[in-house]
Amino acid sequence: MRTRLVWILLFLGPALAALLIFLVIPIFASFVLSVTDFDVYALADWSRARFVGLSNFQELLSDPLFWRSLLNTLYCLIVAMPLTVAISLGVAMLINREKTRFKGLFRVIYFLPFVTNTVAIAVVWSWILNMHYGLLNWFLGLFGISGPNWLGDPTFAMSSIIMLVVWKAIGYNMILFISGLQNIPDFLYEAAELDGASGWQKFVHITIPMLRPTMLFVTTMMLIGYLQLFEEPYMLTDGGPLNSTLSVVLYLYRQGFRFFELGYASALAVALFLIIITITLIRMRLSKQVS
Amino acid sequence: MVTKKSVIRETSVYAVLIFGAVVMVVPFFWMVSTSFKLPREIFVFPPKWIPSEPTLKNYIELFRSLDFARPFINTVVVAGSITVLSVLFSSMAGFAFAKFRFKGRDALFMLVLATIMVPGQMTIIPVFLMLRHLGLINTYAGLIIPAMVSAFNVFFMRQFIITIPDDLLEAAKMDGAREGFLYFKIILPLCRPALSTIAIFTFTGSWNSFLWPLIIAQDERMYTLPVAISVLAGQYGENIAIQMAGSCIVIAPILIFFIFAQRYFIKGIALTGMKF
After folding, report:
1. Residues of chain A contacting B254 with CB distance shorter than 8 Å
2. If both were cysteines, with which of A13, A36, A196, B61 could A49 make a disulfide (CB 3.0 to 4.6 Å apart)?
3. Average pLDDT of A103-111?
4. Is A20 domain-assigned?
5. Closest residue, chain B, to A45 (C-alpha)
6. Which of A15, A94, A127 lies nearest to residue B92, judging by beta carbons?
7. What is the C-alpha R_g of chain A?
8. What is the pLDDT along chain B (276 residues), one digit of tens a residue?
9. Is there a domain that residue A42 lies in?
10. Would you state the torsion angle of the CA atoms of residues A7, A9, A14, A20, taken in this order, to the nearest 10 degrees?
């Protein structure tokens, strides 16, 4: 029996209307805005915005700050992603070992940073990273290392951002890896032990292949998340010094909401959207080839 | 069998785990400790782990002269409303997608699924323009309405409700029950675990949300906590203790909430990979 239209409208209406108004239409509107010169004058009177074709995109391609922000974001991704995977998988394996005690406690502790507000904890981190009085440089000092000016030196600023990003992401990915590890049947390891496999061989030939679905999910989420890097550089460095930590979304925010170049910022949003889709598709294609 | 080799291995495993755990916890400890310090104990080297004269001065100043109560209340109102509305609308839509019968249902559901992958900043400029046009900048409505439905929550509820046996609903229908009755009397009670999962995640996500409030709440009176702390960090760059006290206020409620509800958080993530 079909459901009556009244009920369909009543139950689906609010959710679908909200998704349509705040998600679907804006996606198309972004594309439309990206081919206009919508700026601070158009903000007062929308009719002032004119169609400019692809000139925003042309400008983007010759904008050194855009390239800078893209390279910075990719750099963060390329460094932070393997680091996050390695650390969170390592921690997950150590916690998941049969012999390890206090599993629950360790899980909760490693998970804490993930539920923490990024903006607020970034304030704490910038104090920890303080060149003269920060905890990190004090700790390095114990080993006779004189720590750098983490946030003020273009060579180290991105490393500081990556530190915070990875610190925050470990717990979430660790949980996913633990549940992936628990799905690997024990008899695989037992059979390998009978054949005299070493710990490393078991890791390479059983754990890694069996974790493939988890790995695909984890890395895809990470790709999408890390490419949208914003809060960490906004709070720690505001993109500086010398734009060494300017990320694409931070640049988008600046263009859109400090200079109100909303047409240009929309072109940036579209470009980022396309980059995210392309990289995600490549990632999925790669994993298909392997399996 | 305890061999020398296994003792060394066990010790190093715990050494690594404990070192990592310390790295995870130290920032929180340092934040709390610094927030109770007097100015003269802050800029010292080597750092002082515990304040010798703990003071509430920083918190008092935060609430008295900086009026941190206002963003606190704003955040509670905004995150609370988003959570209630999101749970309501997504369970309703999830019910419809799982159990209603009509043409085009599955195609419509696929469309909803497709929107999950769209990155947030793709929609932010058009939504900003729309809300500005409607005069909703610097209003609760502007902070709440765009975030009140998440495609992911709809998807999650649908997946949960689809596991509820049809017979249960059919039997009630035979007795003349309508869809509204089914939703309130059968679906909602059976969905309690799923509802609490999305409630927890939605609340935490909206409490921590930053970019959207940063754009919509331009007037001080409408700041949410993350916006307030970002402004505070800019204006009181030198007053570290105040900043740490402010960070505590932003972080502590969710952290306490997490410690009590950690089972739900961890189970929810392991089940769905949900992220906020």
Report:
1. 115-117
2. A36
3. 94
4. no
5. B133
6. A15
7. 24
8. 568 888 999 999 999 999 999 999 999 999 999 999 998 888 888 888 999 999 999 999 999 988 899 999 999 999 999 999 999 999 999 999 999 999 999 999 999 988 887 888 889 999 999 999 999 999 999 999 999 999 999 999 999 999 999 988 888 888 888 888 999 999 999 999 899 999 999 999 999 999 999 999 999 999 999 999 999 998 877 889 999 999 999 999 999 999 888 888 888 887 776 665
9. no
10. 150
Q: CB contact, 8 Å: A30 with chain B?
A: yes
Nearest to B151 by CA among B110, B184, B188, B179: B110
Which positions 33-52 of A are in contact with B (Cβ < 8 Å)? 33, 43, 46
- Asked if A29 reaches chain B (Cβ–Cβ under 8 Å), the answer is yes
Report the sign of the C-alpha dihedral through residues B1, B7, B13, B17, in that order.
positive
- Closest Cβ–Cβ partner in B27, B115, B124 for A121: B27
Closest A-chain CA to B155: A15
A105 assigned to some structural domain: yes
Greatest Cα-to-Cα distance within chain B, rounded to the nearest angstrom: 77
Range of the structural domain that residue A237 is part of = 62-290
- Are A119 and B210 within 8 A, CB to CB? yes
Q: Measured between beta carbons, which residues in chain A are less than 8 angstroms from residue B121?
A: 228, 230, 249, 252, 269, 272
CATH number of residue A274's parent domain? 1.10.3720.10
Q: How far is B198 from chain A (nearest CA, A)?
A: 15
| Number of compact structural domains in chain A | 1
Residue A264: what pLDDT?
Answer: 97
Q: Which of A12, A100, A124 sits opposite B30 (nearest CB)?
A: A124
| Whether ipTM exceeds 0.90 | yes
CB contacts of B129 in chain A (<8 Å) are 29, 33, 43, 46, 262
Residue A22 lies in a domain: no
Residues 45-74 of B with CB under 8 A from A: 45-47
- As a CATH number, domain B61-272 is 1.10.3720.10
Q: What are phi and psi of A15, to 5 degrees?
A: -65, -45
